[in-house]
Specification:
This protein is mainly α. Helix content is about 75%, strand content about 0%. Helix 2 crosses helix 4 and helix 7 packs across helix 10.
């Protein structure tokens, strides 16, 4: 049972936390919960969905409990910085994704996600990887809808920058650089 789902549970937690050590701890907690409900899960066709939901919820609970400890890192955003052109950053991000094979894409996205502050990474992962609507993310995190949308946008811009620094921006963007 565990080998069939361990990668999915771990990657769900890793995307949200950005920390392999924290994701391992949370994954262990998920499988302890699964053990408690193993009689129902053993033959359930929805065991994977149940595990993913538990992994997401335990990870979000973990992040909420430890938010104050990480506040210095997760809520720092220079207000005096002007945002880059949103369209060119989005084009760089999408162009970079198309150019990569699956293994390289997975590794670089993971690295870029880990570089994002928590307040950008968590809503971005919930929206793009967990397919949660904006309003559900806002409700779950206890933030306004506007904050969630802003954090997702800034997370996308941060990922686009990280991918561009990895040399993955489309050729047209790189040729315009001074």
């Amino acid at each position: 049972f565990m080998p069939a789902y361990q990668d999915m549970v771990f990657s769900t937690s890793l995307r949200l936390t950005g920390s392999p050590a924290q994701a391992e701890d949370i994954s262990q907690d998920v499988f302890l919960k699964a053990y408690e409900h193993f009689d129902q899960l053993r033959s359930s066709p929805t065991a994977g969905g149940w595990l993913k939901t538990v992994a997401t919820n335990l990870t979000l609970n973990h992040l909420t409990r430890h938010r104050k400890r990480w506040r210095l890192f997760s809520e720092v955003f220079a207000e005096d910085q002007q945002e880059e052109d949103v369209e060119s950053a989005a084009a760089a991000f999408e162009g970079a994704m198309v150019q990569m094979d699956d293994e390289r894409r997975h590794a670089l996205i993971g690295q870029a996600l880990q570089r994002l502050p928590e307040h950008q990474r968590v809503p971005l992962v919930l929206y793009h990887f967990e397919d949660m609507p904006y309003q559900d993310i806002a409700t779950r995190l206890g933030h306004s809808l506007a904050k969630v949308k802003t954090d997702i946008l800034r997370g996308r811009l941060g990922m686009a920058k990280a991918l561009a620094q990895s040399g993955l921006a489309p050729e047209s963007d790189r040729s315009c650089a001074p």
